[in-house]
Every structure is written in C-alpha cells, then in structure tokens.
Design brief:
This protein is mostly helical. The chain has 36 helices and four strands.
Length: 682
C-alpha cells in the first residue's frame, strides 16, 4: 500500500511543524498492528500534516497513500483515516467564494491562497470511487465514515443517492444507519433542486421508522433542509423519541482504559458519555437555530429525562443556546441547577461548567449552587498539576451570579495561605455584598512582596477587587506597591496600571502624590486619569493626555481620549485632536474619540454618525456607544433606532461561529440593560 513512498522527496516538503521528513513514519503508523501507535500516528497527521485544517504540499503528497491504506481491509481503524481524507478534501467549503477552482497558477492573492485546498479537493475527488467500495466494508467504523465522503466527493449524485437509500435497507449497524441518514440530509442540502426523493425518504423515516434514534436523526436532517416538512408536534415527538431511545440498552460510546495521552485520545475520552445522543440532539438544535421557544421546550424535556446521559447532553446543548440567543431562560437554568444534586459526576460537572459562564442568568440555580458549595468543600478550589490553585467552578458560578452566600466562603479562602489568586477578579460581581471582604483583601495585598516573579500575578486580582469595592482604606497598600515595584519587574506595567486605577476609584487625596510621580512614566495616561478623579486639576493632566493623543500610532490614544472625556468641558483645548480621532481608521479609536467629543462639547450632531458607523462595523463597540447614548438623553434620539433594533434582535450581539468568550453572555446582558436605560431616560 506504500509503494513509492520512499521515492517521494519528503525532505523538500513542509507541514505545520517544519520538515515533512517524518511523514512516511506517520503513514506507516496508521497501518500499524498496535492500536496505540495507530492513534499516535493519526494524532500526528492532524497535529502536523493537516494542522487545524491547513493543507501543505506534504498533505497533498499523502493523499494517494491514504487512499491505498483505506482500501486494505486487513488494516484496523480505517474509519479515522476516511474522516481525515474528508477533512483534507474540505467538503463544500474547499473553494473560495465565486470560484470552483482557482488553479495552482492563479495570479490573484485569493486564488493563490485557496489553490492548495482546491488541489486537495480535486485529488480526493479523483479517488472517490474508493469510498464507493467501502459501503459494505466489514468494519462498521469505516461504513459509518463513508456517507459524507460519498456525498461530498463522488461526482455522480444520482448514484450516491441510490447507494445511500439501498444501504439503509440492508445496514445492520445502528450507528451506520444514523450516518446514512446524515448523508441523505447532506445530499439534500447540496442538491436542493433534485432533493424531493431524499426528502421523501427522510420524511418517511421521521414518522414511521421503528428505531427512535433513526427517527430523531431524520427529523434533525429535515429541520436543517426542509423545515416545512416537520410535524407540527415536533418537540413533544422528539422528547418522546428521546425517552424511547433511552429505554433501549446501548453500548458506551467512550473507549475505556488509560489511553495514549494523544489529543485525539483525550477528545475521545472526554467527549459525551452518549456521543450518539449528543449528535442527534445537536443536529436538531442546530437546525432549529433561532426557533428559541421550541429549543427551550426541547431542552426542558431533555433536562427532565430519567436518563442522566440525556440530561447531560441537554446541559451541554444549552450552553450554545444561552450564548447565541436572547430569551427568558429561568426554567431551563433552574432545571440545570437541579442536576447539581446528583452522584453522576459527569452530569454535575457539566452543569457547573455551563452555569459558570451565565453570571446573573444563573440566579435561578443559585440555591443548588450554594448547596453544592456547602456540601462539597473540596469543590471550592481547583488544584492544578502546575501553577497556583484557582477558584472552584461552583463557587465561581455562585459569585458571578452575585449571590451573597458566596461571601463567607470567599472570606474563608482569603484567610488561607494558598487562596486562589483569581478570586479577586470574581469579587466585583458581588457588588456591595462583597464589602465584608475588603479588610481581608487589604491584608493579602499588604503581604504581596515587592520584587518577586509573581508580584503582579498576586497583586492585580486583589487590586481589581478593591477597585470594584472603592475601598479607600487600601490607599497605603496600593502606594507601597506603586512606589516599591522595581524597574524590570515582570509585568510591571500591568501592576502599575491596576494600582493607579485603584487610586482613581478611591478618589482619596492621599493617593495624589504617587499619581503625580507617575505622570511621566510608562503608565502616564492611566495616572493622569486617576489624578483627575482625585484632584480635578485639569492643568496637571491635560499636557499628558494631549501629548499621548497627538502621538500617531500610539496604543494609548484611545485611553487618552477616554480620560479627556472624563474632564468634560475642561478638556476643550484637546478638541482638535479628539475630532481628528473620530476619523481614525481604527474603529475603537473613532468610538472613544466621539464619546470624548460629546462629553467635552455636549454636541450630539457631529458624533452620532460616527456611532452609527462603528455600531455596524464592530458589534463589540455597542456597549460603549450605548452607554454614551444613555448619557446624552434626548439628544441621542436620532440614534434610538439602533437601540430599538438591538433590543428587538433575538441574537446576542457577540454571537459568532467557531468560538466564544466566557464573558459574552455577561456583556450582552449589560448591553441590553444599557439600551433599555437609554430609551427609558430619553
């Protein structure tokens, strides 16, 4: 199967880790008799030869050998290799928009960038008949991987549809039948003009199949490509099928044993206990998209299932819904909280993980969270093999929900020598309820050494908490750090910034001398902003802020504009520079400049067009803009359509495909509150 492999000039090729000289060993490893070696080889292929979906010259050179490998029935674990080939070929996303094949000789930048992907797709298509020969392979894992490969790469749509339908009649393996149904759905999406036959088959399976999992799979595919064919009672039907499926004995999806330690092995072992059920419901939820009421009803049904695996899948499914769509989630959140009182560790951990990123949306689950923190003291701190301990997820979720029951537990941790260092970052979410923690936070700050490698790591979270509490009694501790932190200290700028922000929040006169000393240093802008909060002396801070604002390309221009805006009319001498900033090519600089111009002049007319453009260009600016519009009151009326449109939008403003931030929900909920306030106060 590897004939000619040694004649390939691998040393002249590259992959993500450099020279491709090791590729022959990886290819041979895929055919090894050792399961561990096969897993390591596949991990190496994804880690280097096809790293994060990239295609290199070595990737293209591998394709014939990968096809030769999957054609050999005496080789184990070929299903993973089929999946690798599908990924290398790239499916329907391989070509650049508007071009089927830019070709290797394309002169355009986009064509050159996409040429390797188009070549990979063409190479996989050229061997696609090999996939057709695997539909009756003795290995069910191979048969399960084949349907998407056939649909994406065999350029005979009618033949592919016949193969899928015929195989559904004869396939003995339940997991393979589900893959065939997914293949039918993919075929229908790729061939919408001739999809009637595939849709008829899916409709029949969704209503009449004996296997509840097969019916669920068919309903999920219909929801994605022909929602008009879905039954009116979709949600109760899906819940009933889910319950029926859970009553059917199933083999565990996850491999047992210690594993190899590869990334692929870890993903397999850390995935859902019921991967098949997770995939079925993921498909249905994804297809329902913005039909949030139906998705909530479906989640509620899942979360009340007698099967803990069904409930665990529901918990994980809820995370994507909460992050992407706006709705009233009190009921599903309360049901997720109900999963905390269980001995099923996987289910409990999933619930805690989801609640951790909900902040105030987790309030309906605060009672169970508090009970878990009380009943399991070991859950209050997470210990790591390396590095300092961090706040345990149940306690973090309770704190972020703003629940005062977290305060005594946090106080207890603050008295321990190994208190979690990230605790200070979470205290701010408690609001005034955290006031009793101030003396303990001050004491810990006083113990931070001035010249240690971890000085900044220890001090900044504590400074963040004390800043949020506006604890002016902490001025001596903050002054000690600002005056004593030596030059060359690791992360010294971050320490100084956090310290001056704290003094600005305290607005205590005792902090002014150290702030004045810092007006010529590396945190001059932050020091000027803080000094204004303390003394209201425009003459002392204007030169610093104007100089920073006038420095083209300086990363501190936005911060300088924000500080000048706080001066209000006293920043009038900086207006020419602020107006120029509103024309910057950087959307954040334009936004900060416009906010400052309004706060200095009180004139809405010049800044509203800037806000409107930035609002549409970068959704992340909306919180800042909405806050400024709220300050404007009636003057912001011409921009109120932005606020009303935002409030009417069911999708969160930071929702995005392929990733998320842990604070996305928090920032979106804050934006909604600010929009309502701006409209109510106008």
């Amino acid at each position: 199967m590897f004939t000619g492999i040694d004649e390939v000039d691998w040393a002249s090729m590259e992959h993500a880790c450099g020279s491709a000289e090791d590729v022959p060993a990886l290819l041979r490893g895929l055919a090894s008799a050792s399961a561990d070696e096969r897993e390591r080889a596949l991990d190496g292929m994804y880690g280097a030869v096809h790293h994060q979906g990239d295609v290199y010259d070595s990737t293209l050179a591998c394709i014939p050998f990968l096809f030769a490998l999957i054609a050999r029935k005496d080789v184990a674990d070929r299903g993973g290799v089929v999946e690798l080939l599908v990924s290398i070929g790239g499916g329907e996303d391989a070509e650049p928009p508007g071009s089927l094949d830019p070709g290797p000789a394309s002169d355009s930048a986009s064509g050159s960038a996409f040429a390797p992907y188009a070549q990979a797709r063409a190479a996989v298509r050229a061997h696609a008949d090999v996939f057709a020969g695997l539909v009756e392979d003795p290995d069910p894992e191979v048969r399960r991987a084949v349907p998407p490969a056939l649909v994406r790469f065999l350029d005979e749509p009618a033949r592919v549809l016949d193969v899928l339908c015929e195989r559904l009649e004869d396939e003995p393996d339940a997991a393979v039948r589900l893959a065939l149904v997914e293949g039918l759905g993919l075929w229908a999406r790729l061939h919408p003009d001739t999809a009637a036959g595939a849709l008829d088959r899916l409709s029949a399976l969704g209503t009449r199949a004996d296997d509840p999992a097969l019916r669920l799979a068919a309903l999920g595919q219909l929801a994605g490509c022909a929602p008009e064919r879905l039954p009116a009672d979709l949600v109760p039907m899906a819940i009933g099928l889910l319950r029926a499926r859970s009553r059917t004995p199933r083999q565990p999806d996850r491999p047992q044993g210690p594993g190899t330690g590869t990334l692929i092995g870890q993903l397999r072992r850390l995935g859902p206990a019921d991967e098949e059920g997770s995939q079925l419901l993921r498909t249905l939820h994804t297809a329902l998209g913005g039909r949030v009421a139906e998705r909530i009803a479906l989640l509620n049904g899942q979360l009340t299932s007698p099967d803990p695996a069904d409930r665990c899948n529901a918990v994980w499914m809820s995370a994507g819904l909460f992050r992407e769509w706006r709705a009233s989630y009190a009921e599903p959140v309360a049901l997720i909280g109900g999963q905390l009182d269980t001995d099923e560790e996987r289910l409990r951990d999933a619930a805690v993980c989801v609640l951790e990123d909900l902040f105030t949306l987790a309030v309906p689950a605060a009672g169970p969270l508090a009970a878990l923190v009380a009943a399991r003291p070991g859950s209050r701190v997470r210990h790591w093999e390396r590095g300092s301990p961090s706040l345990g997820r149940p306690l973090k979720a309770l704190t972020r929900a703003g629940d005062a029951r977290a305060v005594p537990v946090l106080a207890e941790l603050l008295e321990r020598p190994d208190a979690p260092r990230d605790l200070g970052y979470e205290v701010r979410h408690l609001g005034p309820a955290a006031a009793p923690l101030a003396p303990l936070l001050r004491a810990r700050l006083a113990d931070v050494p001035l010249a240690s490698d971890d000085t900044c790591d220890r001090a900044v979270p504590l400074l963040t908490a004390l800043t949020a509490l506006r604890d002016s009694a902490a001025v001596p501790e903050v002054r000690r750090l600002l005056r004593g932190a030596p030059e060359g200290l690791r992360r010294r700028p971050a320490l100084l910034e956090a310290g001056v922000r704290a003094l600005g929040a305290f607005a205590a006169a005792e902090g002014a001398p150290v702030l004045r000393d810092l007006l010529t240093g590396e945190c001059a802008v932050a020091a000027a902003a803080a000094l204004w909060s303390v003394e209201r002396d425009a003459e002392a801070v204007l030169p610093v802020l104007r100089a920073e604002l006038a420095a083209d390309g300086s990363p501190g221009r936005r911060a300088a504009a924000d500080a000048l805006g706080a001066l209000g009319p006293q920043a009038a001498p900086a207006l020419p520079c602020l107006r120029r900033l509103t024309e910057s090519g950087d959307v954040w600089e334009r936004t900060s400049g416009a906010c400052a111009v309004w706060r200095v002049t009180g004139e809405a007319g010049p800044v509203l067009p800037v806000f409107r453009t930035a609002w549409r260009e970068n959704a992340c600016t909306r919180g800042t803009i909405a806050a400024c519009l709220a300050e404007m009151g009636p003057s912001a009326a011409p921009a109120h359509d932005l606020l009303r449109t935002e409030l009417a939008n069911p999708r969160r403003h930071r929702a995005r495909t392929g990733g998320y931030g842990s604070h996305d929900v928090l920032e979106d909920e804050q934006l909604l509150r600010t929009c309502r306030t701006a409209l109510d106060d106008a």
